[in-house]
Amino acid sequence: MAIGFRKSLFGYNQDDVIEYIKKLHNNFKDKEQTFKDDISALEEKVNALVGNEEKLNHENRELNAKLDEFNAKKAEMERLSENIGKLYLVANTNANTIMSNAEESSKLAESEINKNVSAIEETHIALNSLRDSVNETAQNFTNEISALIESLEDTKSKISNSALESKNASNEFSSLLEMVSK
User: Fold this and answer.
1) Does position 50 have pLDDT exceeding 60, yes or no?
2) pTM summary value
3) Annotated domain spans of the chain
4) Which tens digits make up the pLDDT trace of 108-148?
């Protein structure tokens, strides 16, 4: 940039040179403040993203707790399923034994069969209810995991962008400081 200083008796006019230096100083001071403001804004963004990361970590712990609960329900369902199988085998064996007995024991056998069938039906109803609950829990868990993954990816992207912007601003500021100090 060509600067036209007025000539004076001993070279350039001192007032023109001093005025020019003051303008440069003010320009650099304004740019420095702008960069400081940008750095502060970026630091606030980074702090917000760190807060989001902590929130996501908390959500992750909650989801892990729900996963543990889901696994406990699954184990209970497997135990009930095994018990139902055993109960079914017992009921079937009892029915065959009762059928082979004489007519005298037929009333007793019919009563025992009714008890076992009722227990099977109640257990079957309970198992169906538990299965529906486990399926609903699994679906909710899957939805929450998907949302968490999407949120984590979004946060990761934002953190990366903010870190890059912060680094670029810092490099640009360092370059300007070097230029000013030269």
Assistant:
1) yes
2) 0.32
3) 11-181
4) 778 888 888 888 999 989 889 989 988 999 899 899 889 88
In terms of phi and psi (left: phi > 0; alpha: psi -120 to 50; beta: otherwise), the region of 32 is alpha
Cβ-contact 5, 16 below 8 angstroms: yes
∠ at Cα 73 (71, 76), nearest 5°? 110
What is the topology classification, in CATH, of domain 11-181? Helix Hairpins (1.10.287)
CA dihedral (21, 27, 28, 30) positive or negative: positive
Of 85-99, 123-137, 149-163, 165-179, the poorest mean pLDDT is in 85-99
One-letter-per-residue 3-state SS of the chain? CCCCCCEECCEECHHHHHHHHHHHHHHHHHHHHHHHHHHHHHHHHHHHHHHHHHHHHHHHHHHHHHHHHHHHHHHHHHHHHHHHHHHHHHHHHHHHHHHHCCHHHHHHHHHHHHHHHHHHHHHHHHHHHHHHHHHHHHHHHHHHHHHHHHHHHHHHHHHHHHHHHHHHHHHHHHHHHHHHHC
Strand partners, 11: 8
